[in-house]
Amino acid sequence: EVQLVESGGGLVQPGGSLRLSCAATGFTFNTYWMTWVRQAPGKGPEWVANIKPDGSDKYYVDSVKGRFTISRDNANNSLYLQMKYLGADDTAVYYCARVVPEAGPDCWGQGIPVTVSS
Amino acid sequence: DVQMTQSPSTLSASVGDRVTITCRASQSVNSWLSWYQQKPGKPPKLLIYKASTLESGVPSRFSGSGSGTEFTLTIGCLQPDDFATYYCQQYNSYSLFTFGPGTKVEIK
């Protein structure tokens, strides 16, 4: 069974940093693109970033370019999102998800809340 | 960048109704279009991918159609479990995924 478990969220002050982790089990992690998607309170999902199976290609939504970094550790089946210079607009539940070529994001974690507030 | 729109934003319906939701892309996404169902406090659940392929385990009352820039999700006979918010998402390129704004299906 595919499982994705996010961790590392919480309350952070404006301008602060946070690193999210996503532990993957139940599939061959190093053969899949992975993605981070966020959802602000009362809003729809917003794609944040994608990373290639070997980590060589990474893509970001414009609003996080230069502030967020997606990475992965295939030896430990883990996905990460390093977030810097956080602002109120980054407050959201953050989901990691597996990406399949035919379907896009197919399996999702339960999400981890990030709140940016003083 | 590809922008996605959905209509309607809210839909009031009764159990047993046939429901159709429309999703439009600002440029062609070929058939790289998925539909998700989301309930409060839960992650989105994949229902349909490649515009019309039903994800394993999803009831057959759900169907999708379309290609290029216009797509539809149809629920053939609305069930109580179907009251939720539905999102389309394009994945034409790994460099940019885009979600639609959502359609809330509520009880009439």
| Rg on CA atoms of chain B, Å | 13 Å
The main β sheet of chain A shows up as:
7 strands, mixed
Calculate the mean pLDDT score of chain A and round it: 97
Task: Label the structural class of chain A.
Answer: mainly beta
Determine the N-to-C terminus distance of chain B. Answer: 36 Å
Describe the global form of chain B. Answer: globular
Task: Say how many strands of chain A there are.
Answer: 11
Order of helices and strands of chain B: EEEEEEEEEEE
Category by helix and strand content of chain B: mainly beta
Which residue ranges of chain B are poorly predicted, with pLDDT under 50 across at least 5 consecutive positions? Answer: none
Beta-strand level of the residues of chain A, as a percent range? over 45%
- What's the order of the H and E elements of chain A? EEEEEEEEEEE
What number is the mean pLDDT of chain B?
Answer: 96
In terms of per-residue confidence, which ranges of chain A show pLDDT below 50 for 5 or more consecutive residues?
none
Relative helix content of chain B: under 10%
Radius of gyration of chain A: 13 Å
Would you count the extended β strands of chain B for me? 11
Keywords, separated by commas or semicolons:
heterodimer, A: 118 residues, mainly beta, B: seven-stranded mixed sheet, four-stranded antiparallel sheet, 0% helix, globular
Structure description:
- With 118 residues, chain A is mainly β.
- Helices cover 0% and strands 54% of the residues of chain A.
- Chain A contains no helices and eleven strands.
- In chain A, the strands form two sheets. In chain A, strands 2, 4, 5, 6, 9, 10 and 11 form a seven-stranded mixed β-sheet that branches.
- Chain B is mainly β and 108 residues long.
- In chain B, 0% of the residues lie in helices and 54% in strands.
- In chain B, the strands form two sheets. In chain B, strands 2, 4, 5, 6, 9, 10 and 11 form a seven-stranded mixed β-sheet that branches. Chain B has a four-stranded antiparallel β-sheet with strand order 1-3-8-7, with no helix packed on it.
- In chain B, a hairpin with a 6-residue loop joins strand 4 and strand 5.
- The N and C termini of chain B lie far apart (36 Å).
- Chains A and B meet through strand 4, strand 5, strand 9 and strand 10 of A and strand 4, strand 5, strand 9 and strand 10 of B.
